[in-house]
Amino acid sequence: MRSIVTILLLGVLLVGCSLIATSPSKIRVVATLHPLADLVREIGGERVEVMTLIPAGASPHAFEPTSGAILRAKGADLLVYMGAGLDDWASEFAGEETLLLCLSEGMELPDGDPHVWLDPVLVKEALAPQMAQALSEIAPDSSDYFRGNLRRLQRELERLHAEIRAALATVEVRAFITLHAAWGPFARRYQLEDICIEEFPAAEPSAARLASLVRSARERGVRAVLVEPGYNPRPAEVLASEIGGQVYEVDPLGGEGLPGRERYLDLMRYNLQIFVSALR
Questions:
Q1: Whether residues 224 and 273 fall in one domain
Q2: CA 30, 34, 40, 44: dihedral to nearest 10 degrees?
Q3: pLDDT confidence of residue 216
Q4: How far apart, in whole angstroms, are the C-alpha atoms of residue 201 and residue 129?
């Protein structure tokens, strides 16, 4: 009897070991920006392990990678970044076996603007398919799984686009002022005008620049001045007081642990609500 039990136990162990051995390991992905990381996670599903290099509230323009972030990049199977001058530094820390995916390569960027993840149509047509292709190159046996998730995500992105287009179709003012030149792709997609104070939000606008912005805002009936988390809001507050407007905070990046801003789709809807309020 004891020998039969032993044989049965050995059989269970062998089956268990076999299942473990044939279970596919997860693809280790590192993305510079949280929206990119979330999109990869949507496509990769349970077959990826995704980490974000830049924490919530930090800017890719001024981010200095920590030793921990560099180690994560070196150990990744796939490193995803936008490029086009935004986060190109990330490629310097990739490991020898890491596949690099620069999403801006091969894309026509209007005015060279790399903030194209804020246009859900470009995410659907360009960014997400590139991600699915890169994952399939690493794990060809899972390509059907990735393509299925991509199609599901593209349907959600189409619904998001329709929702944004409908919500912004009736706003009274079509222009807004920002401290950071991030919302150009979003504005172009939905026939809005982004009047940017400075290219980089760390720069303080001159008195002459502020005076020019006041004149431009008054001519267009602009009342909304948009700021982003982590940046000095003082220039926006000064400008808003001059034009009798109001400061609103939008978030192009989101992040882990931020209510309503963890998933890319939720982040875009979060910002949509603010845009609708600001432009009405």
A1: yes
A2: 80
A3: 86
A4: 31
